[in-house]
Amino acid sequence: MPKCPKCEKEVYFAEKVTSLGKDWHRPCLRCEKCSKTLSPGSHAEHEGKPYCNKPCYAALFGPKGFGRGGAESHTYK
User: LIM zinc-binding domain: which residues (predicted)?
Assistant: First the structure.
């Protein structure tokens, strides 16, 4: 029986959601930053952890500085 990468408990067929090459419980497949529940295939991955595409993944790992949107995206050096 496969184990959920988030809670380490067994994932039964009826509750299984497959994403990032692993089997998850549906409530365990959440964005690491904002905890939004994600659906398989509609999210980004960084170092094996799921993130929602916008805004979390873009803000954490996307390009920095102008162009991402809003004044908060500028990086001061």
Answer: 2-63
Residue-by-residue pLDDT tens, the chain, 77 positions: 899 999 999 999 999 999 988 999 999 999 999 999 998 888 899 998 999 888 888 888 877 655 555 545 544 34
Look-up of token digits 């916008």: 54
Q: What is the CATH number of the domain that holds 51?
A: 2.10.110.10
DSSP code for 28: G
Tell me the whole-structure pTM to 2 decimals: 0.72
